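In the laboratory, one determines a bound structure by crystallizing the protein with its ligand and collecting diffraction data. In a computational setting the workflow is compressed into a single prediction: the sequence and the ligand go in, and a structural description comes out. We illustrate the idea with 4'-deoxy-4'-aminopyridoxal-5'-phosphate.
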Amino acid sequence: MLTNLQARDVETLVHPYTNLVAVRETGPLILERGKGVWVHDVDGKPYLEGMAGLWCTALGYGNEELVEAAAAQMRKLPFTHIFGGKSHDPAIELAEKLKEMAPVPISKVFFTSSGSEANDTQMKLVWYMNNALGRPKKKKIISRMRAYHGVTIASASLTGLAGNHNDFDLPIAGVRHTTCPHYYRLAEAGETEEDFATRLAADLEALIIAEGPETVAAFIAEPVLGAGGVIVPPKSYYPKIEAVLKKYDVFFIGDEVITGFGRLGTAFGCEALEMKPNSISIAKALSSAYQPIGGVMIPEDMYQAMLQESSKLGSFGHGYTYSGHPVAAAVAVKTLEIYERESIFERVRAKIPQFDARRAALEDHPLVGEARGAGLVGAVELVADKKTKQQFDPKLGLAAKCVAFCQEEGLILRNVFGDAITICPPLVISPAEIDELFDRLTRALDKTLDWAVREKLL
Ligand code: PMP
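The predicted complex, in structure-token form:
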């Protein structure tokens, strides 16, 4: 029986990423307020927000400094744009700060309101650059199976998940997907992680050759694949991939929308994974999600090509109304200030051993095939048979069942492709709260096991 608010909800809203039929029966969980890593529903029940919203509320809830930064900017100048030679202080300050923090040489920053817009922009900039460089055929972009880069037409094409393509007539032309670096699922018998990485680099090279290197413009990768199931590539993967990219003059786009700003204990995920992209997409933790803001960090050679092309055309014909929105930029500046002042990234590093140990221990659970992750992000993959790695029938929705049990236990997590349950708490989670998170998840896994046994699924 739906509450009044739930009934109004299902009569009015189309929910993103939701089973549109089931939600009409169950109604949504309606949240009302939050503090620290905790959120409360409209009945006052507290939940540990184990996903930091959507991998984004890095500083947790109820951060008054961020609220104040937004309010102060709204009072001063709630909106002005940076089109046609205009600018404002928060955008300038934010771009300066980002250049300072950049893990690879970065010349300029282009702002967006989301990660999808950042990756759309990346694709357009690569095309724009190659037109400027006089190589109009070099336009294809290679992504990876199970990558997640967003949902706009271009970024959803880069995403490597069938659910984002089927029935949307995607991917668009000129996007290809290479092998996902998931050792647990895709390694061949007896293959070491090193051999696996070598094979994946060879796969990429074969794809580039088959397409024609003169047609391949860029490769895009999240340091750790997030929404595809939190997949951490083997250590030597990126150096091997980068050697191939260099050989064929293929631009490397890093998508740091989840891993940017401390998630792996470093400012950027690529620093933790020996990855050296040419340009970087950012969003989410850039403002701790208190305001929607993203961006593209652009290297000097790309910028020089942009200057050249736009001088031919008279103007650089790309930009969103909210590119560099002053309130979003002011909140992002404050967020970066807090990360630095409170040594948030160092404190994440100190929490990783406990997080790792609790995560790894989940592999002892009868339902867990792999408990993987890096930094303060992880996933558990549920399997019907641990030895053979046999999966449950996807129609059973076992991970979704487990996430529902988590919710019963007062823990918010998400289930993604392949019966994986993802974990990505606010970076400010305390050691006691990390234990609480894993205790609740373990109880939910036990309930899922009981259910599976009752339903004779095992
Ligand atoms: N890239 C990555 C790595 C992401 O995880 C996401 C969102 N989960 C996006 C891009 C898209 O960001 P947005 O939802 O803000 O458009």
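The domain at 4-62+343-454 is CATH 3.90.1150.10 (Aspartate Aminotransferase, domain 1). Keep in mind that any predicted model is a hypothesis to be tested, not a measurement.
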